[in-house]
Amino acid sequence: MSESEEQEGTKEDNSVLLKLPLKYETDLLFTRSSSQNYYEILPNNSLERYEGVGPPFNCTFKLQNLGLFPIDGLAIRITVPVATRGGNRLLQLLDFKETTLCTVGGNNTDYRRTPSDEDLGRHPQLNHSNSDVILIMCSMTLAAGEELSFRLHGHLWMKSLRALKFKSLRFVIRAALQRGFRSAFVFREEEPSRQITFEISKLEESHVPIWIIIGSTLGGLLLLALLVLALWK
């Protein structure tokens, strides 16, 4: 307000437009599920159910807007480790089902035709930071009460898993939510993310010393001879 006198013709111009951007907190349910969490590789190939292609897996990430307002400018980023840095394939992603706009890419690995005995002892957990991944990016708008699911289907790659050196190995499929810079909402969690872990273990083949086998055989024969002698008497 000015203390000076103002002309009558300019008094109608004394107005200002204030814009205060408001953000609201989302009520978003973010869950995950998986059909396969653990698999054990047997030391004897003849007892193994799978040879080249391993057991199937299905995993799902689900989003549901529990709030009263639509969520616009929402994105989900999914990373799937599919190969080691040495080019050994870990799993094969066969199908990805979604009901929104998505792009799939990020993996240019030249897979080895014959798997190598790469040592993964230093990396018991494989994720987006230490392996080659497939990157899935999806953008969406969630209306109030709407639900979206992102389903992945594939197989573990048994040829490589048998050749690789490890005792226990975990694959981590990670999904993280992102929002646009000008989005009108904020997340309740600082960095909302969920992960699905597949654990693979190898049973070590037991090697019995030959002297134990020979001793057990001779002991069994001696016991049988004493039993026959006792019955004969």
Question: Could you characterize the architecture of this molecule?
Answer:
The protein has 233 residues and is mainly beta. Helices cover 12% and strands 42% of the residues. The protein contains 2 helices and 13 strands; from the N terminus they run ββββββββββαβββα. It has helices at 158-163, 210-232; strands at 24-25, 28-34, 38-41, 53-65, 71-83, 91-97, 101-105, 125-126, 132-142, 147-157, 168-179, 185-186, 193-202. Strands 3, 5, 7, 8, 9, 11 and 13 form a 7-stranded mixed sheet that branches. Strands 2-4-10-6 form a 4-stranded antiparallel sheet. The mean pLDDT is 81.
Helix content: 10-25%
Can you write the helix and strand succession as a string? EEEEEEEEEEHEEEH
Biggest sheet character: 7 strands, mixed
Low-confidence stretches: none
- Enumerate how many helices there are, as a single number: 2
Shape estimate:
elongated
Mean pLDDT: 81
Give the strand tally: 13
| Secondary-structure class | mainly beta
Content of β-strand: 35-45%
Q: What is the C-alpha radius of gyration, as a whole number of Å?
A: 31 Å
Distance between the termini: 128 Å
Features:
seven-stranded mixed sheet; elongated; 13 strands; four-stranded antiparallel sheet; 233 residues; mainly beta
